[in-house]
Design a protein that fits this description.
heterodimer, A: alpha+beta, Neuraminidase, 2 domains, 4-stranded antiparallel beta sheet, about 15% helix, B: mainly alpha, two-stranded antiparallel ribbon, 20 helices, about 10% strand, flat
């Protein structure tokens, strides 16, 4: 409509110039240039809007072929920057999968069929593999040399810990306890040194995901739709309420410039917010086709700035880049 | 003469102003067919009393049933503006949420105050059919049919549309000192009354809920003095089959801090049914899954039998998507037996070209409800099929 308006303006200016070329030559130029300016402005605005709507473009899918069998309820992705590898916890098939940076499947690992519902995993700098095995309620060490699994059931404050998400940094494990919704910090001997608790405000439900950013922890409380930014000493640096723009937040990712990305499991989309919690834009929709989501589980950045989404319902990991 | 001329139009206006309404009342054409007597009851809605049928109805043609000019709620809230604002806050009663004011109120006249269709309790029970109406030992306000003694009929900030937090509400009639005397072994001020008492009534004295948890029968120390006794791990010690569910990919084991997630849904002491659920599934599940319910309610084609979540979902834990009891086929086949035998090819051998996963019922249907018939994800005439069958 606005473009048509622009065309109408230029037609109008042509008409004027035909009627009185000398007298209106100046006006013609003014009208033409203002029309041009208007069109440029329009293109800029529309372009800007499109950019705000879809700044992320589908890059590739990590998925398996019929030979190794489709993934069944993949639940987590771990990226090894040193080895340029993606690792996926293929939870429903009791196996771990590794892919190269181009998305080619490298290995399928079942620890001699001993893995029981591997939900999340990390690899230490010394190449030790640790897996959250939901089926055993354990944080399991994989001894790949001896081809052995060593499960560890943990206790904290006289309660059984139910491991959910795991991260590793500076010789410490960061473990999300599903039963309490707390993030526990464990040393390499699995002694719990510190805990980050979800403030028990009205409507709080415990953390469902967290990310380590520098020395800080960013965690997500699904029920109150609130992000807590913890300092290493446990103090809360920021509390960001997500409001009505998300319905079922299950995972969060923080970009290098501090933009917050929230994965919404019910809406099958990603919503982005600035550091003060202002909604910026959302993208992706529900479905099975490429770049669509169905009950997604986790969102994270890989070391190369790409946004990775573990798409549980579609049995794949979708990778997007700007 | 001039002054008289000036006065006469004024007199005429005055005369019309006095006489016209009376003429209007007497000659409201609606009542030529609709018996006016039917609109004369103890309480009459103001527009009816004022003979302003046109305030709500169009006498010639209308888009809405009963020749209404707008949807029911739009009409009501056009006058009851304050109510419209209030009813959008907190937990909203289902008929209010759906804009169905006439589910409880008569728009014209009633012999019951607040223009209720029926006596208050009868009006409530007309929808709340599973709520028992008679008890051996009823709670006094319940026996009187005074539901609004505890509940707010439109909206509330508390669950079950309670006027206040449940304990506060109990203490508004029952003196704390008296309650302390009746609970001599209670370690602190009696609280969480509904954990043991049914606020409507019971077979047992003192409104004790009908089903008691075995350890509670044996005494408080069965759980309260034991290590992990009151935590989820304590519950799971005695419920090993439920414990296994907590080891699934998805479970309802979630609670803040030192809370016990089992107690989110179950009472540890007593309940109305053997599963000791604190309420019906619809009320309980909705507490956390409000948005899912809102979408289901808003869907033109919701699943017709979705009141009991546990029919399809494993409410404790499951390794299937959406905590279903099985994969996207065998859950549906529980009821849709014919489709299980004869349908679009489904199962492990039939692969969805978009994902490589097995085709199941949920590849095409979203059982909670969609905008298409049969809870299809897209228009079933063509669009849905084309997602996979691109060559057609």
């Amino acid at each position: 409509m606005l473009t048509a308006e622009g065309i109408a303006l230029s037609r109008f200016s042509t008409k004027i110039s035909k009627n009185a070329p000398g007298k209106f030559a100046m006006k013609k130029n003014v009208v033409l240039s203002s029309s041009l300016l208007f069109l440029i402005l329009l293109l800029f605005l529309l372009g800007g809007k499109a950019e705000a709507k879809t700044p992320w473009h589908w890059q590739m899918s990590l998925r398996t072929d019929a030979v190794v069998g489709a993934m069944n309820m993949p639940s987590a992705l771990f990226v090894d920057a040193n080895k340029d590898r993606y690792y996926i916890a293929d939870c429903g098939n009791n196996r771990l999968l590794s892919f190269d940076r181009e998305g080619k499947l490298l290995h399928s690992f079942t620890a001699n069929d001993e893995l029981k519902t591997p939900y999340d995993m990390i690899r230490t700098e010394t190449n030790e593999l640790w897996v959250v095995e939901k089926g055993l309620n354990s944080l399991t060490q994989i001894d790949s040399q001896a081809k052995k699994t060593i499960p560890h059931t943990l206790q904290y404050k006289e309660r059984t810990v139910f491991p959910d998400r795991v991260e590793y940094k500076n010789n410490h494990f960061y473990l999300l306890d599903k039963a309490s919704g707390d993030i526990l910090v464990l040393d390499k001997d699995l002694t719990i040194k510190q805990s980050f608790t979800c403030p028990t405000e009205k409507g709080a439900g415990g953390f469902v995901d967290f990310k380590l950013v520098g020395k800080d922890i960013w965690s997500l409380d699904q029920r109150s739709k609130t992000i807590y930014h913890f300092r290493p000493d446990g103090g809360i640096a920021d509390r960001i309420r997500l409001g009505k723009d998300v319905h079922s937040p299950v995972s969060l990712a923080i970009s290098q410039i501090g933009i917050i990305y929230i994965l919404d499991r019910l809406d099958n989309k990603v919503s982005s917010f600035d550091r003060s919690g202002r909604f910026k834009y959302s993208f992706l929709t529900a479905g099975q086709s490429q770049g669509q989501l169905y009950f997604p589980r986790e969102i994270l950045f890989d070391p190369w700035g790409q946004l990775c989404i573990v798409d549980e319902g579609n049995g794949r990991v979708e990778i997007f880049r700007r | 003469m001039r002054n008289q001329m000036r006065l006469s139009p004024l007199l005429l206006i005055l005369l019309f102003a006095l006489v016209l309404p009376a003429i209007g009342q007497a000659s409201n054409p609606c009542f030529k067919c609709h018996k006016k007597q039917l609109f004369k009851k103890r309480f009459t809605h103001q527009p009816v009393a004022d003979n302003k049928c046109g305030a709500c109805h169009n006498p010639h043609v209308a888009r809405y049933k009963n020749l209404l000019q707008h949807k029911i709620a739009t009409l009501c809230f056009s006058c009851h503006e304050k109510s419209a604002r209030e009813f959008s806050k907190g937990i909203v009663h289902a008929p209010v949420r759906k804009g169905n004011c006439t589910a409880c109120h008569d728009a014209h006249a009633s012999n019951v105050s607040s223009l209720l269709n029926k006596r208050l309790a009868d009006s409530c029970f007309s929808c709340h059919k599973t709520t028992p109406q008679k008890f051996k030992h009823p709670h006094a306000p319940f026996a009187k049919g005074d539901c609004t003694a505890c509940h707010q009929p439109h909206q509330a900030d508390n669950g079950y549309l309670l006027k206040e937090d449940s304990d506060k509400l109990c203490f508004s009639c029952h003196q704390k000192a008296t309650l302390q005397q009746k609970h001599p072994n209670f370690p602190k001020q009696p609280a969480r009354c509904l954990s043991c008492h049914n606020p409507h009534g019971s077979k047992q004295k003192a409104l004790m809920r009908n089903e008691m948890h075995q350890p509670f029968k044996q005494g408080c120390k069965s759980c309260h003095d034991k290590k992990q006794g009151t935590s989820a791990a304590g519950c799971l010690k005695c419920h090993p089959t439920i414990k296994q569910k907590m080891y699934a990919t998805h479970s309802h084991l979630t609670s803040p801090g030192d809370g016990n997630s089992c107690l989110e849904c179950h009472s540890p002491h007593a309940g109305d049914k053997k599963n000791l659920l604190k309420s019906s599934q619809q009320v309980l599940c909705r507490k956390c899954h409000e948005e899912t319910y809102r979408r289901k309610d808003a869907s033109p084609y919701p699943h017709p039998d979705a009141a009991t979540c546990s029919n399809c979902h494993d409410v404790h834990g499951s390794s299937n998507a959406a905590m279903l009891k099985g994969d996207g086929n065998n859950v549906c086949e529980q009821c849709h037996k014919a489709q299980g035998q004869f349908t679009h090819p489904v199962g492990a051998k039939i692969r969805d070209p978009r994902t490589g996963l097995a085709v199941t019922c949920v590849s095409c249907h979203y059982p909670m409800g969609t905008e298409y018939k049969y809870q299809l994800k897209r228009n079933g005439q063509k669009e849905l099929c084309m997602l996979c069958h691109k060559a057609y």
